[in-house]
Amino acid sequence: MSCNAHKLRPMTEGTTINAHLTPLPDKVGVDGLEDKWRAVWDEDGTYQFRNTRDRKAVYSIDTPPPTVSGSLHVGHVFSYTHTDVIARFKRMQGYDVFYPMGWDDNGLPTERRVQNYYGVRVDTSMPYDPDFEPPFEGTDGKKIDAKDQVPVSRQNFIELCEKLTAQDEKLFEALWRRLGLSVDWSQTYHTIGEHPRRVAQKAFLRNLARGEAYQQDAPGLWDVTFQTAVAQAELESREYPGFYHKVAFRFEDGTPIYIETTRPELLAACTSLIAHPDDERYKPYFGQEVYSPLFRVKVPILAHPAAEMDKGAGIAMCCTFGDVTDVQWWRELKLPTRSIIQRNGRIVMDIPEWIESEAGRAVFAETAGKTTFSARKIIVDKLRESGDLDGEPTPTKRMTNFYEKGDKPLEIVTSRQWYLKNGGTDKTLNAELIARGKELEFHPDFMRVRYENWVNGLNGDWLISRQRFFGVPFPLWYPLDEAGEPDYANPIVPSEDLLPIDPTIDVPAGYTAEQRDVPGGFTAENDIMDTWATSSLTPQIVTHWAEPDEESQALFNATFPMDLRPQGQDIIRTWLFSTVDRAHLENGCLPWAHAALSGWILDPDHKKMSKSKGNVVVPNEPIEKFGADAVRYWSANARLGLDATYDEGQMKIGRRLAIKLLNATKFALAIGREDENHHVGESAVASWNPADVTEPLDRAAMAKLALVVTQATEALNAYEHSKALEVIESFFWQFCDDYIELVKNRAYGTADEQGKAPSEAAVKSARTALGLGLDAFARLLAPYLPYASEEVWSWMHEGEGSVHRAAWPTAEPYAQAATGVSPEVLAWAGKAVEQLRKIKSEAKVSMKTPILSVALSAAREGVDAIKASMGDIAQAGRVVGRFDLVEKHAEEAAAADSAAVAADADAAGSAAETLVAIESSELGEPPAKKPKA
């Protein structure tokens, strides 16, 4: 997209800025600005999308929908600020910014919160109760045991989910508004809403029609707590304590062969022993058979390259299923299925038919229905008794798969699930998705490798079905045969114009409600889609993909593919990749051009903030304490892709910056307008024409401003918001501390100590440069400090609208004002004033103390620059007498620099200070102190 897109409203005609100045407040501060300007923005629709239909003039953002299953923490504020800075910048560049907000309100986190908040659980056998009242309304975060939760119907539970998420969304929106997010609040959605459900179901049906979605009975990862299947992208590997058990399998003659296992409770599920084909220890045994201990089931000894020769005994038992390697062996070696773990995590009740010995059947009967922990204890005791346990179990820690939100290790169970192709089983699709990743602009670019590593490491398609209740239903039914068995191979699908549907409530065409769940009738698909299966379609949801009305089609054409996906770097494998997959399959393109990836927030001890660690900071606290602009400043100082420490010290700096912007702007705008009480009570008009900047120092300030505008614009166009802020802030402080101090007397028209007043042109030059500069700073800082920037803009441009709809500064007018003067003139003048102040600080006298005479020396390149500003330097330093400047020769300057560095190696800039030095000086009498009132 070209950055020269149609501008919505240029701020100036030509290069002159015509300012309409308001009366000024007697006191300024950041308190109260948030409520004031938020109300104005809402009333004026400042951030509303203008429905531009030209794609080149639109900048569209796929905003992350936060999970509304609890409370936000300051890490959310951190990453969403990064997005908002870019949104505000693009809007000021003239784009019509499409910046919606969604709420991710379905899935396991919401269900768990609702269970605890209301004290309920789902019982699918219960009928809907329209008058149901939950036993609790909030439990202060305490977890209610399942046995104490009141059973409710699925529909009652869904209604409670919708009720609670609606309450949470209001709190979240209030926080985002206070932070100053420039979201278009008329463009909101929630992932369980009617439109998102229609999009998710429509996309699934099209995937199904193209053969990209399929169902399969297969082993899969299962969370026994949440009672649902878990996808590869949702895994979290954690260290888990256990014990190695050295167990004997025996040949026909009783000769043992030992394996080491951490899961002896799965001995009854053993299908084979497997070693590496190059392992000399076991080569002689490949193809032979041995008996499993206790159960005496005959199993073969096989070879497979995935066996690890240096792990344990080097030979492992393959059970169906202990881990994902077992699944690989089972699939590739075509082993029998001998599952003994149920979905509830307990051993099956019925004794398996492959256990034929009476002794083995008796042992299994003792473990039937037990948890894996209890079954393990029984099996280990039996192995001791039989003599098949060699020695005692030895402690170990192993990396085990957990569901990212779960508390117990995952099991692998066989079940019917829905899958979506993602390149895990299709090499052609995998290569296409790798190519999509190369098309995408990653910010920072080094994050690209995470995407590629994930896609290259996929070992299966995307499991998208979940055995839960609050989510988008699969829009399917199945015909039942005369025995009442479902025909899963021939699902009944609705037409797209009927979507969204709930198959547990709605009836398929050609059937009646009375035929539900009866032989010859139909039954509903009870599973719901994984929450990522909906969230992966956020670009299609917000841009109204595949909606039939003309307005939706126009919106889609103007906003898709989108420009930006901002998100956390930890969900590249889930949200980013799955969204790329869906757009590639459905739209044949990337869903967006850029991905901006934020790092994590660390606590002061440099540990990642998380609820489980108890080190989370609630975002309302720092906003209340320091203000939204200050918190945004801290957030924006962090670079994309890098972790940042929660730092209230930086927030204090941000608050000072906002206050300084207010004070500096008020000071400059008050010049020539104050009454005898320093009050500005009248409006005024000012014209700031770059051609009126005639003094060298003023032109140098404009030259530096032109450079800053160029550098900040380049950085923001490259999504380097922190670099842009650094450039802007650095010059802003130089502008305030050096430039304003140097020119304020001239701007006021104050005569010097000899009674000589500056010329009218010199006064106008200073006032124009101050106006141009502070007008630019209001715009440059607007993406970072929206409240303070809006306040000062309103003082300068009454009736001209928001600064956030003003044009982003361009370098040309400031370069024009500079007329070739170097920005170094300002730098040298600042160094000279610094030395004059140093005379007084070392003498411990007031800065108002006059300097009767002074001689400064400067390096050759600085002499002419300082001479060009001698009058302003003298006024700023209160030099009332002789003021000499001598050139310091290169050799002398170099020697002085070296001496300064050697004397104080830690003093930043010490060498630079010697470029201007005091040769001699004489102070006058300090001004008399005013008596205390």
From TrEMBL:
Annotated ranges, domain Aminoacyl-tRNA synthetase class Ia: 37-121, 146-643
Cited SUPFAM superfamilies: Anticodon-binding domain of a subclass of class I aminoacyl-tRNA synthetases (SSF47323), Nucleotidylyl transferase (SSF52374), ValRS/IleRS/LeuRS editing domain (SSF50677)
Any one GO molecular function term: aminoacyl-tRNA deacylase activity
One GO biological process term: valyl-tRNA aminoacylation
UniProt key word Protein biosynthesis: yes
Chief location of this protein within or outside the cell: cytoplasm
Residues in the signal sequence: none
Subcellular location: Cytoplasm
CDD domains: Anticodon_Ia_Val
EC nos: 6.1.1.9
Catalytic activity: tRNA(Val) + L-valine + ATP = L-valyl-tRNA(Val) + AMP + diphosphate
Gene Ontology cellular component annotations, sorted alphabetically: cytosol
Protein residues bound to ATP: K611
Domain Methionyl/Valyl/Leucyl/Isoleucyl-tRNA synthetase anticodon-binding, chain residue ranges per copy: 698-854
Highest taxon of source: Bacteria
Enzyme class: ligase
Role this protein plays: Catalyzes the attachment of valine to tRNA(Val). As ValRS can inadvertently accommodate and process structurally similar amino acids such as threonine, to avoid such errors, it has a 'posttransfer' editing activity that hydrolyzes mischarged Thr-tRNA(Val) in a tRNA-dependent manner.
Domain notes: ValRS has two distinct active sites: one for aminoacylation and one for editing. The misactivated threonine is translocated from the active site to the editing site.
HAMAP family: Val_tRNA_synth_type2 (MF_02005)
Name of the molecule in the record: Valine--tRNA ligase
Organism from which the protein derives: Bifidobacterium lemurum
Gene coding for it: valS
